[in-house]
Design a protein that fits this description.
It is a single chain. This protein has 12 helices and 9 strands. It has 313 residues and is an alpha/beta fold. The protein has a single domain (66-311), classed as Spore Coat Polysaccharide Biosynthesis Protein SpsA, Chain A (Alpha-Beta Complex), CATH 3.90.550.10. The strands form 2 sheets. It has a 6-stranded mixed sheet, sandwiched between helices. α4 runs antiparallel to α7. The chain is globular.
């Protein structure tokens, strides 16, 4: 029987082999390090300069700060009425360097939902069409801008102005909704401004700040799930639903006094704090498309009035 013996170690171990010479000499390596450090320093300086000078997105020269979006329905209201509405918006926009966007109610696939939903994809479309504009102002077709001197920025959206206008701790759906507007909201955090009427959120005139939050908000509002709920007031009730159930939206929303942005025709609205008064920014004929009312007739006296104000010289 053979026994296994451990192999014998040699008494002459191999000599120590030094490690390879570095690929880069020490001098060259120090130069690379110096270059990297220098690049980082230059990058930091450029970032600092950019921050001091405004930084962020660079808005091309000539970009309108506000786009007024109005979805028009010429088939139902007639060419003359729609032409009048467009002229009103264009004349106002011209004074302040704004622009207008007039998609048709038939431009969007609403999947069988009421046509009032068209405002939502229209605003989303405007964000794509005007990628550098700061504010999207949606203004319903059944309304006129009445005070051409007021600017969206200074009259409403400037931070301090918003803080002076905001209605804090207000039930989203009056009079007793348990979900209320935030009491400590700051002007710089606001992305969405609108008003209430006596029934709830009034989305016939609202302003949204263009950006990623606005895209998220509009996409959420237009979600097929909400459109399939068959809310009694369609997009209005859907908006109230998502505002109350999504803190991400509520935390960026501000309610402002109704007459600041969305005064109603006093002949058909009995809440005095929301009735149009001469000098107000906007008048809307809210509900004029319901049985027993006529939008074209209701618009006539205000049409004459806005023309007198705008073209007075």
């Amino acid at each position: 029987m053979h026994l296994a013996f451990p192999s014998r170690k040699t008494s002459n171990p191999p000599q120590y082999l030094p490690s390879r010479t570095p690929r880069f000499p020490t001098l060259r390596r120090s130069r690379v390090q110096a270059f990297v450090v220098g690049a980082l320093v230059v990058g930091a300086v450029l970032w600092l300069i950019s921050s001091i000078s405004g930084g962020g997105e660079r808005i091309p020269s000539g970009t309108p700060p506000v786009v007024i979006v109005t979805v028009v329905d010429e088939e139902s209201y007639g060419q003359a009425y729609v032409k009048n509405v467009k002229e009103n918006r264009r004349e106002y926009a011209k004074r302040h360097g704004y622009t207008t966007f007039f998609p048709s109610v038939g431009d969007y696939d609403l999947g069988g939902s009421p046509v009032s939903w068209a405002k939502v994809p229209a605003c989303r479309h405007a964000i794509t069409k005007f990628p550098h504009t700061t504010y999207i102002w949606y203004l319903d077709q059944n309304s006129f801008i009445m005070n051409p001197e007021l600017k969206v920025e200074s009259h409403i959206m400037e931070k301090k102005r918003l803080e002076s206008l905001m209605i804090k701790n207000q039930p989203i759906v009056p009079p007793d909704s348990v979900i209320k507007t935030w009491p400590h909201l700051k002007g710089e955090n606001i992305e969405f401004a609108l008003t209430q009427d006596k029934d709830g959120l009034a989305q016939g005139s609202f302003i949204v700040r263009r950006g990623e939050w606005a895209k998220f908000f509009l996409d959420t509002w237009f979600d097929p799930l909400y459109r399939s709920y068959n809310f009694q007031k369609a997009d209005t009730h859907a908006l109230e639903h998502i505002v109350q159930w999504h803190p991400t939206i509520l935390s960026k929303l501000v309610l402002i006094p109704q007459r600041t942005l969305n005064a109603y025709n006093p002949a058909y609205y009995d809440a005095k704090e929301g009735q149009y008064t001469d000098g107000d920014f906007v008048v809307r004929f809210a509900g004029c498309d319901t049985v027993g009312r006529d939008c074209i007739k209701e618009a006539e006296p205000f049409s004459k009035q806005w023309r007198t104000i705008f073209y007075a010289r």
